[in-house]
DNA sequence: AACGTAGACAACCGCTTCAGA
DNA sequence: TTCTGAAGCGGTTGTCTACGT
């Protein structure tokens, strides 16, 4: 362990503390933490770490639990709807990751932060502009976000087409699809401001009226989580905890099978945020089937648009 | 097959905030 | 009111894996 690792928060660690483990968590450690919390609930993290016999800091235990082991952590690709929401909320609040995470049930601030750094900043780099620059923000708002909306609509349309297969004529399908699109916008609380010009899809602004602050059922805040699932009964409803595991590549899903909370329960929007509660899962067959294919927005058309936009800015 | 590189994500660090003594 | 420890938070780093050469 290097010198930096021996210090935390400007204090030298004791000899006992130097014995603390670092780095990736093992399956045994995960199981110990899960079992301890399932039995005793959460408490003071430092005390918990000691009592559970984990040679980890309380901080490390807390992070592992909140970001990985917690039963309602949602893993896997960020959906198109989630991407749209992240872009919108980040444009509003900046790097307030925990605040943004409140709007994405099951997603952690860490995950959103990682998404932003690896995907969004990558695009800024491709465009050779700063992620915080007006140019990039405009590109997000006027290109990326409308395109996300289009793809969400396309996914919804595809779903509608499948479910209505053989039932309608193509003309009816078109009408239905238009209704789907309209409903989607309603569901997402999106309003279209007047278009800047005819070439352009338009920007989408999230309505301000529904926020976790004014909703009594805000989810997944790391602020509030400690009071949400903290009892044995709560946890045993979610888990069946195996005694041991030899699988070093185990995921939380390998450790326990959720018994009541289904996947779809985790990924609907917080009640009160989207006017009618957006069912992410039902709208996203594209992403589930093909993985995250949403990164390739910067085609020739986009680049031309951006160039033109930047030229107008400079005039 | 071996190596290098980039991307994704888990984990850590240190500062700030908050609550209780 | 002040102090102290715990927890929260955002930035950064480390590690693993997939992919290209």
UniProtKB/TrEMBL annotation:
It holds the Pfam family Myb_DNA-binding. This is Uncharacterized protein. Its main location: nucleus. PROSITE patterns: HTH_MYB (PS51294), MYB_LIKE (PS50090). The keyword DNA-binding applies. One of its GO terms (molecular function) is sequence-specific DNA binding. Gene3D superfamilies: Homeodomain-like. Residues 17-69, 70-124 form the HTH myb-type domain. Keywords: DNA-binding, Nucleus, Repeat, Transcription, Transcription regulation. CDD domains: SANT. The keyword Nucleus applies. It comes from the Eukaryota. It is found in: Nucleus. Residues 17-69, 70-120 form the Myb-like domain.
């Amino acid at each position: 362990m290097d010198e930096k690792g021996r210090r935390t928060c400007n204090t030298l660690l004791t000899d006992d503390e130097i014995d603390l483990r670092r780095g990736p968590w093992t399956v045994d450690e995960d199981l110990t933490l899960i079992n301890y919390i399932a039995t005793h609930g959460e408490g003071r993290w430092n005390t918990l770490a000691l009592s559970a016999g984990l040679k980890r800091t309380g901080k490390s235990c807390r992070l592992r639990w909140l970001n990985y082991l917690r039963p309602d952590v949602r893993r896997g690709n960020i959906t198109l709807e989630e991407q749209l929401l992240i872009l919108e909320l980040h444009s509003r609040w900046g790097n307030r990751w925990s605040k943004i995470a409140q709007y994405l049930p099951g997603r952690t601030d860490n995950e959103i932060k990682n998404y932003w750094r690896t995907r969004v900043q990558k695009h800024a780099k491709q465009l050779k502009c700063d992620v915080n620059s007006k140019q990039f923000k405009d590109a997000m708002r006027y290109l990326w976000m409308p395109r996300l909306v289009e793809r969400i609509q396309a996914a919804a349309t595809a779903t509608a087409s499948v479910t209505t297969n053989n039932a309608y004529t193509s003309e009816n399908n078109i009408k239905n699809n238009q209704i789907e699109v309209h409903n989607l916008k309603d569901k997402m609380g999106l309003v279209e401001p007047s278009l800047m010009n005819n070439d352009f899809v338009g920007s989408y602004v999230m309505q301000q009226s529904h926020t976790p602050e004014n909703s009594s059922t805000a989810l997944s805040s790391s602020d509030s989580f400690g009071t949400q699932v903290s009892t044995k009964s709560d946890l045993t409803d979610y888990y069946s905890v195996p005694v041991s595991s030899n699988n070093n590549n185990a995921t939380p899903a390998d450790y326990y099978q959720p018994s009541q909370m289904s996947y779809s329960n985790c990924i609907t929007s917080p009640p009160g945020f989207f006017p009618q509660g957006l069912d992410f899962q039902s709208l996203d067959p594209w992403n589930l089937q093909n993985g995250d294919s949403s990164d390739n927005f910067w085609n020739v058309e986009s680049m031309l648009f951006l160039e033109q936009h930047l030229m107008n800015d400079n005039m």
